[in-house]
Amino acid sequence: MLNELALDDFLASALKEDIGCGDVTTDSLIRPSQQSECGLYAKEDGVLAGMEVAARAFHLLNAGILFQAERTDGSTVAPGDRIAGIRGNARAILKGERVALNILQRMSGIATKTRRMCELIREYPARITDTRKTLPGFRMLDKYAVIVGGGTNHRMNLSDLVLIKDNHIAAVGSIAEAVALAKKKAPFPVKVEVEVENQRQLAEAIQAGADIVMLDNMGCDEMRKAVAFTNHRVTLEASGNVEENSVVAIASTGVDYISCGALTHSVRALDISLKFDC
Fold first, then answer.
1. What is the mean pLDDT of the chain?
2. Cα 22 from Cα 208, distance rounded (Å)
3. Which of 101, 106, 147, 275 is the most buried (most CB within 10 A)?
């Protein structure tokens, strides 16, 4: 899922932003030829994601750096666990440290939260999925981290799926007209999803031929009615302020997917540090 060309472009931009015209601290204190060893350590419980990305950040600065992963993406970690060893040019390691850690911590935070959400509803068939509420520029990494945590990806970008929301409906005039236009003009393989707020709109979306219906901010009783009415004719996605304290009740209604913007839009980074051994 990680496009290597896109990843290198992203990391190069991040490194340029952080290093600027040069690392005046490192370049003043560290000999150009100095070789050092260090380790990456978890400082709290969580799920790792982004090890390959962190390694690539260092390699872009110095291809001779040895990044030895001791844990893999998807591994659970506890405080004090060593997750990787790094050996090579000390200047390059220090210059890449912040970018590598920022990304690794963010991705691991997303994977950790996703894993918790998935574990909470493991007794139900519903799947946890993400949204487009990602940090600009980070979407590929954010969505990869969701997969690592056990979730699924919703559309990667606007070209993946027709998703007719309230503003589209207001602009066009009706759900039926919006679906008809989408079916006529969208590329053949693209499915059509419609966001609805009540049972009347749900019936209209199904009648119009929607492939997927998003139940937007419905209460659990309303979602159960929607599941019963739909009777597997279309895929149902629940959406709207989904959190750990509400996801089990939502899953119990029988919906197929539960989308959660909080997986990526307000993630808490997992605490990980880099420590020099010598």
1. 97
2. 59
3. 106
Which pLDDT score, from 0 to 100, does residue 210 have? 97
Residues 6+ apart with CB under 8 A from 237: 129, 193, 212, 213, 214, 215, 255, 256, 257, 258, 259
Q: Is the pLDDT of residue 129 over 80?
A: yes
Distances (CA, A) of 163 to 50, 130, 169, 210, 212: 30, 14, 11, 10, 9
Asked if 81 and 42 touch (Cβ cutoff 8 Å), the reply is yes
Report the DSSP beta bridge partners of residue 274: 40
Rounded CA-CA distance 74/86 in Å is 20
Domains of the chain, with CATH numbers? 4-112+268-276 (3.90.1170.20), 119-265 (3.20.20.70)
Distances (CA, A) of 20 to 23, 24, 26, 59, 217: 7, 10, 13, 18, 45
In the chain the beta strands, taken as DSSP E runs, fall at 35-42, 46-47, 66-69, 76-77, 82-89, 127-129, 162-164, 192-196, 212-216, 235-239, 257-259, 272-276
Q: Tokens 């309303």 identify what position?
A: 222
Q: What is the radius of gyration, based on Cα positions, of the chain?
A: 23
Give Cα separations from 30 to 23, 44, 65, 100 (angstroms). 11, 31, 16, 20
CA distances 184 to 93, 177, 190, Å, are 54, 11, 11
Contact (Cβ atoms closer than 8 angstroms) between residue 210 and residue 193: yes
Catalytic residues: 98, 133, 165, 195, 216
Global pTM reads 0.96
